[in-house]
């Protein structure tokens, strides 16, 4: 969890067992992060020495063309991919040092992830999909999980669809369910990779309004999108070009 992060005032120290002591300036820090992939044509540098700091409660939009490195960047934060070089520090965790088993547990407890294609299990009801992260991490008392899931669905205006299968819902409705699922374990950080890519413009705008409401409640959002218009709805816009941060602009 993030508890130690908000209490420490020590300077950065080398991570031990996936933890480190950290000043309380930033919730997320990427220090000189490099990601190099081996390809048939030779090494490809997807990220080239990224330095990035994100504070608690920020609404950050990452934009860039296909192949720019924006999805690789969010995968670094999520621990889905590992850096070739550099550090990924989130809360009191040195994410880049965690084993696969530690990573799965840490991710389930601390991050909410929203995918472009929703990733809802088609054989489970809506409420069961929202309960899945609670079941995996065992962070909510078993007897309270359904009530919590229904409360989250109410928050995204989907409680009336709770006992339907995802296939009975529209794309926008499925994305709302996916957002509720991302909140299941009350994470401080929500990551979203092209979360409105399969939605029409009106539905996409409604989803971004929902994100903003969650930011107002203290959540930290990092969203990847190729849509420059939607990017303007965040508080901070970061443009990635050829694996480097081209611009980092505070919008409002």
Structure write-up:
With 252 residues, the chain is an alpha/beta fold. 30% of the residues lie in helices and 26% in strands. The strands form 2 sheets. The chain has a 6-stranded mixed β-sheet, with helices on both faces. Strands 2-1-4-5 form a 4-stranded antiparallel β-sheet. β7, α6 and β8 form a beta-alpha-beta unit. α3 packs parallel to α5 and α4 crosses α5. The longest helix is centred in the last third of the chain and has 16 residues. The N terminus is likely disordered.
Nutshell version of this structure?
With 252 residues, the protein is an alpha/beta fold. It has helices at 70-78, 100-110, 126-137, 145-155, 171-182, 201-216, 228-231; strands at residues 28-39, 42-54, 59-63, 85-90, 93-94, 111-114, 189-193, 220-225, 236-241, 244-250.
Give a topology summary.
Elements: E1 28-39, E2 42-54, E3 59-63, H1 70-78, E4 85-90, E5 93-94, H2 100-110, E6 111-114, H3 126-137, H4 145-155, H5 171-182, E7 189-193, H6 201-216, E8 220-225, H7 228-231, E9 236-241, E10 244-250
Parallel strand pairs: 3-8, 3-9, 6-7, 7-8
Antiparallel strand pairs: 1-2, 1-4, 4-5, 9-10
What is the H-and-E element order?
EEEHEEHEHHHEHEHEE
Structural class: alpha/beta
Q: Kindly report the CATH topology.
A: Rossmann fold
Overall geometry comes to: globular
Determine and state the CATH class: Alpha Beta
Classify the beta-strand content into a percent band: 25-35%
| Number of DSSP-assigned strands | 10
Assigned CATH architecture: 3-Layer(aba) Sandwich
The first-to-last residue Cα distance is 29 Å
């Amino acid at each position: 969890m993030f508890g130690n992060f908000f209490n420490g005032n020590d300077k950065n120290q080398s991570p031990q067992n996936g933890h480190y002591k950290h000043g309380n300036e930033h919730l997320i820090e990427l220090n000189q992060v490099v990601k190099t992939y081996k390809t048939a044509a030779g090494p490809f540098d997807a990220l080239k020495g990224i330095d990035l700091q994100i504070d608690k409660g920020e609404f950050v939009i990452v934009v860039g063309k296909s192949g720019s490195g924006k999805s690789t960047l969010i995968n670094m934060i999520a621990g889905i991919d590992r850096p070739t070089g550099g550090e990924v520090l989130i809360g009191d965790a040195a994410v880049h040092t965690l084993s696969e088993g530690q990573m799965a547990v840490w991710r389930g407890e601390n991050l909410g992830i929203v995918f472009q294609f929703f990733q809802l299990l088609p054989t489970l009801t809506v409420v069961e999909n929202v309960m899945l992260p609670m079941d995996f991490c065992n962070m909510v008392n078993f007897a309270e999980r359904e009530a919590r899931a229904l409360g989250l669905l109410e928050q995204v205006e989907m409680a009336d669809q709770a006992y339907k299968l995802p296939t009975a819902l529209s794309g926008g409705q499925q994305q709302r369910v996916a957002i509720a699922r991302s909140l299941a374990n009350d994470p401080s950080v929500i990551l979203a990779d092209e979360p409105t890519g399969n939605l029409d413009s009106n539905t996409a705008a409604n989803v971004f309004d929902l994100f903003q409401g969650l930011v107002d409640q203290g959540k930290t959002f990092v969203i990847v999108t190729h849509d420059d218009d939607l990017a303007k709805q965040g508080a901070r816009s970061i443009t990635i070009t050829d694996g480097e941060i081209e611009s980092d602009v505070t919008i409002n």
